[in-house]
Amino acid sequence: MGLKINNLSGGYAGNNVLKNVTFDVPDGNIVALIGLNGAGKSTTINHIIGELQPQMGTIELNGINLVQDPTGFKSQIAYIPEQPILYDELTLGEHLHLMLAAHNIDDEIAWQRAEQLLKRFRLDDKLHWLPVHFSKGMRQKVMLISAFMLDAPLIIIDEPFLGLDTVAQKDVVKLIHEQANKGNSVLMTTHLLASAAEFVDQFVVLHDGKSRFIGTPQALAEENQLQLDQLDDFFDLVQRELADES
Ligand SMILES: Nc1ncnc2c1ncn2[C@@H]1O[C@H](COP(=O)(O)OP(=O)(O)OP(=O)(O)O)[C@@H](O)[C@H]1O
């Protein structure tokens, strides 16, 4: 089933941002939410993680409605924010244990997943390190490990490549694929359209709080008379269109 967003309108007190946003992230699919700055990507994610209350519409994950059963809904989500959130006084190991406890996961398998991820990101000998010792990219990797070890039905990643070296970026793409291959849903935001086009199933283009296009990378490229590897030019076209309209 996966994530179903139906007719979502919402935003912040006194600022209605989203207008009738509808899209799905089916099981095993990778969907990238894209749009210019201020289009409403973070606002959509804030609604999905339950930080904002919808004015209208529904958000369901595997048949569980966010408003009717917020705990059941949120227990199915792993979320990686754009800016890492770490506690200064907790070591890397303690962060991972805290995340597992918060998700009520206490099993050997989850910890084995964490150990594999630590090795993959070359942090396996740094479990005793405090955040003050981490570089920006390492902080981002801690967030990635904390989220991917949960094996959640829906993983949400805000700008997955931000601050990562090219080796780690490739690792993230592999991890995203692995999640999808297990049948989990992946929702991400990105400004790197041509790179994302290589591995996402669908793009959802948000513009001014509305979903303006939903389809495969191929379809988005064709609609805009671009090659797939030219998709980074898409927003230049949108900007030009907006300038012509005004
Ligand atoms: N806390 C807030 N209170 C009121 N309005 C907000 C708040 N956060 C964002 N907005 C407004 O909501 C609109 C959508 O912002 P949002 O952060 O969702 O955009 P975005 O697509 O994530 O942009 P970016 O690419 O810059 O991250 C913007 O007009 C913004 O000014």
Automatic annotation (TrEMBL):
Domain annotation ABC transporter: ranges: 3-233
CDD domains: ABC_DR_subfamily_A (cd03230)
Keywords attached to this entry: ATP-binding, Nucleotide-binding, Transport
InterPro entries, per the entry: AAA+_ATPase (IPR003593), ABC_transporter-like_ATP-bd (IPR003439), ABC_transporter-like_CS (IPR017871), ABC_Transporter_VariousFunc (IPR051782), P-loop_NTPase (IPR027417)
Pfam families (alphabetical): ABC_tran
UniProt entry tagged with the keyword ATP-binding: yes
Gene Ontology molecular functions: ATP binding; ATP hydrolysis activity
SUPFAM superfamilies for this protein: P-loop containing nucleoside triphosphate hydrolases
Entries under PROSITE patterns matching the protein: ABC_TRANSPORTER_1, ABC_TRANSPORTER_2
UniProt keyword Nucleotide-binding, yes or no: yes
Protein's name according to its UniProt entry: ABC transporter ATP-binding protein
